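Weekly modeling sync, notes
Attendees: S.R. (lead), two postdocs, one rotation student

Agenda item 3: backlog of single-chain predictions. S.R. asked that every request posted to the team notebook include the full sequence so nobody has to chase files. The rotation student volunteered to paste the first one in as an example of the format we agreed on. Action items at the bottom.

Example entry:
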Amino acid sequence: MSRIAYFDCFSGASGDMIAGALIDAGLALADLQRELGGLGLPDGAFTVTARSVQRAGFAATKFDVEVTEQPHQRSLAEVMSIIDSSGLPAHDRERITAVFTALGEAEAKVHGEPLEHVHLHEVGAVDAIVDVAAAVVGLRLLGVEEVFVSSLPLGRGQVRGRHGVLPVPAPATLELITYAMLLTVVLGVTLAVLSVVWKGGLIDAGTRIYGLAAGAIPDFWVGLLLIFFLFYMAGIVPAPFGRIDALVTAPPQVTGFYTIDSLLAGDVSAFWSSMGRLLLPVLTLTIVNAGALMKMTKTTFSDIYRSEFVRYQRACGLSERTIIRGALRNSLPPVITLVGFLFGFLLGAAVLVETIFSWGGLGQYAVQAVINSDYPALQGFVLVAAAFILIVYLVVDILYELADPRIKV
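Predicted structure, as returned to the notebook:
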């Protein structure tokens, strides 16, 4: 039976991360050090070490490459020369060459230069060469024949490199909380209206129990239960790893929402894959948060549905559907307030759900920044969250006036 490796790239992927994962999987560091000695680099040019670390309560292996050379810009040809003259097996040299060729082609396309003129900057440094070689050699030593990877998470913001500050794509968190909030509104409002209209029925009794339990249910527990029953036991939902299936290519980014971008690209398989991966995390957030919205809507709608002007409408012969629609519109202002609060709250509160489903969103990013004492990253998250919440509250104020023209904003 062939041996495969699956990489869950919720925080991206790099050579040292792959090497650390392989050591965690059973690769002997001494064997890896011996093989890397065949790179043919000068004696003392680098040393490799591995140490145990903990991140967010999880144990892992950190692979480090320490170099003695000063930063040096190598061309693709220079890197290829180092690889070709190394004492590594031919199969390893071919794979390492393929990796750097792909990097060089990407650089050439970005800069509009011929491949032979490309400089790899940081990627051409000794530590980067050792990282790539360690990943390739480690896979061989473990006997891995096939490698599968999850989709890479995309985030909005900027990254600083040798070419200055460059933008990076949009986050997964907004897609997750947007769909979760839409389903929360539909479920919460629908249950509230049905329980008031059919007071004393099964739906009313069920919503009372759900309303009491929803506020006490932890989201990570709900997520784990859904994974166990719907994925493990029933097998009716996709694996809870990332935003899209590992064997499906992510659509070209336009909005940052895989569901929308896949439709714009006409990629049906990517659309259904991204929708399937959204199902469990969205359902988790909905189950946890719809209870509060349902109770608020039920209280407000019940008072209005049994008010004098609704009785008058019923006496005038208006249909029940028209009466319910009118009563619901009069109930909207407090409901809109709670929806706006929940939307802003979910930006950071979805961190446990993102972790369970390997979503790699902003909440998870902020927690890692706290753990690693990365204060600039944490400050950036706070600013983004503050701006997002201000925008949400502005939209809420606008919706007030649309729902009730008597309210002026």
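Discussion: group reviewed the output briefly. Strands lie at 3-7, 46-55, 58-67, 144-149, 157-161, 164-168.
Action items: rotation student to repeat for the remaining queue; S.R. to check formatting next week.
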